[in-house]
Amino acid sequence: MKIYLARRLAQSLLVLLGVSFVVFFILYLTGDPALVLLPPDASAEDVQKFREVMGFNDPFIVQYGRFFLGALRGDFGQSVRHGEPAFNLVIERMPATFELSGAALLVALCLAIPAGIVSAVRRNTVIDYISTVVALLGQSMPTFWLGIMLILVFSVQFNLLPSSGRGTLEHLVLPAITLGLFTTARITRLTRSGMLEVLSQDYIRTARAKGVSDPPVVWKHALKNAAIPIVTIVGIELGTLLGGSVITETIFAWPGVGRLSVQAIYNRDYPVVQAAVFLLSSTFVLVNLVVDVLYTYLDPRIRLR
Amino acid sequence: MDPAPISVPLSRAVDLSAGRAPAPREWALFARRLARRRTALFGLVVVMIVIVAALGASWIAGYDPTEQDITNRLRAPGSQDAAGRAHLFGTDHLGRDILARMIFGARPALMVGFAAVAISGVLGMMVGLLSGYFGGWIDDVFMRLADVQLAFPFILLAIAVIGVLGPSLPVIIVVIGVSSWVVYARVVRGAVLSLREREFVQAAHALGSRDGRVLLRHILPNAFTPWLVVATLDMARVIVIESALSFLGLGVQPPTPTWGGMLADGRVYISTAWWLATFPGLAILVTVLGINLFGDGLRDTLDPRLKL
Fold first, then answer.
1. In Å, how far from its chain's centre is CA A80?
2. Residues B160, A265: contact at Cβ < 8 Å?
3. Stretch B251-273: mean pLDDT, rounded?
């Protein structure tokens, strides 16, 4: 098992290396990073001076090395717009993004898992039908439209909930539901199919035949086994949530990393963009590593590899 | 006994029918089974309507989607304007008919959809075939690349790249296309891994077929069906992404109407003119729903046990 963990750790580091290279390369997409970072009306000699100062005339590999070592230290350069270190700007807003993503995930799990279980146990009844339809709608709905519609109904029409900003629990409700709906739908469908598959297995039939009444059968045997694909999907969904926060934060003016990134891109503030993408991706890689470790406790078969 | 005449080529003497692409009759059976699923059929009809609307927009729409008329701005749905023309879904802040813009908005959505799916589909198919068939370090490299790709919150990377390169149609299509190949690759790779050991592949090898030929003629046709399911469901995802990018102003630029762009415009007027934002969003919802229903039906018809 230690070998497995060591291997996973090495994999994660490799992935981070790849991430850092892609983030570094964004500035070089047009060929000349100086032109990307400077305003369009900069004179030719300003551009030349800028290239010297920033070290853009050095060999490519040297520049990448500089970037990578800087990233490890948390140095992504100064924000072009705000004049502060890009790293600080991003880190300040991480808690807000985590709060939103965490709340969305919580909403999703609290709604989806019971819904999925009930759907599976009461298969082909009205409840199953309704939750399937809702799940399908949830997966087909663009989050930004849902956010706007929720604002329309709850903020504009009925004035029940705030439509922007962060502060109280009420501020969290609409954004969390918006961000979480897609994940809710996905986890519902997965829980339902996972439970259905497990419930049709022989050992469940045996337990029932032995006379064990339903609730212990359902909860003990079925749920533990259906948990495995759910844990996997939670890891993947965290990535979706971190990415989806970009749009949701923009709509609800939630002061998180996503909103910062969008504004930074509009302002051509690329150090901030680089810092944001790198840090969010690193978070995702870390979370996946943790999920994988968790996995080994849930599924003994993995441990033996 | 005399030996069998060698004039018959050995490749025809051995039955490799299991490895051929499905025969026409099998497609007909498949189509009939698919048609029996009413939700899938409904989804297909919806998609067809959207495609027809996109293709025939100039004739169907009835209004010019870019013609501005400030005297007509923000008319409610179902109302008439000063010239007496009806606007079923109302007009926007520049006096343009919303329904007409919705119909024209199907064009960028479907164009980006098909093009991006084509790119990622082909890329993913190639990677999946090579990875699954040859294994070894090729497989390792590609799977590592996939991990790196998946580590990124896609939207963020997409808007960063589009921000640097500028929002033009080719850039958008390539960015979305390049980012989605992983799902296709994984599915095809899985199919190839299970097909690789089957008798017809081993037989083809024994008869001297080279790897390329085996891949193309025997493995590819059988890996095609899971790939098709992924492509259909991915199309839905791409359409949502395109509208998200348009919403952020990084998609197809005005004056071309896009569903996402209409939503962005409408957001400003949410408290006074709710119809600007509501109807384009419904367009996206209905289109994506149709594709998802059809894709689900496709997947369930092919093999309900497939964990796609």
1. 27
2. yes
3. 90
Name the residue facing A149 among B144, B147, B281 (closest C-beta).
B281
Contact A161, A155 (CB under 8 A): yes
Q: Which residues 107-146 in chain A show a CB within 8 A of chain B?
A: 136-137, 139-142, 144-145
**CB contact at 8 A, B262 and B102:** yes
Across the interface, whether the CB atoms of A27 and B156 are under 8 A apart is answered no
Tokens of B24: 């026409």
What was the ipTM of the complex prediction?
0.85
Angle separating helix axes B38-55 and B275-302, nearest 10 degrees: 130
User: Can you tell me whether residue B98 is helix, strand or coil?
Assistant: helix
CB B219 within 8 A of CB B229: no
A253 to chain B, any CB pair closer than 8 A? The answer is: no
How many angstroms separate the CA atoms of A212 and A217, rounded?
7
The Cα B118–Cα A26 span in angstroms is 24
Q: Which residue has the tokens 């996997």?
A: A232
The residue assigned the tokens 């709509």 is A251
Rounded Cα–Cα distance for residues A175 and A100 (Å): 7
**Can you tell me the distance from the alpha carbon of A234 to that of A105, in angstroms, rounded to the nearest whole number?**
8
Prior bond to B304 cis, omega within 30?
Answer: no
**A49-53 contact pairs (CB < 8 A, 24+):** none
Return the closest-CA partner of residue B146 out of B161, B124, B162.
B124
Alpha carbons B128 and B121: distance in angstroms, whole number: 10
Average pLDDT over residues B242-271: 91
pTM for the full predicted model? 0.85
Nearest by CB to residue A145, choosing from B144, B263, B292, is B263
Give CA–CA dist B103/B49, Å, rounded.
11
What pLDDT score does A200 carry?
A: 77
The verdict on a CB contact (< 8 Å) between B144 and A11 is: yes
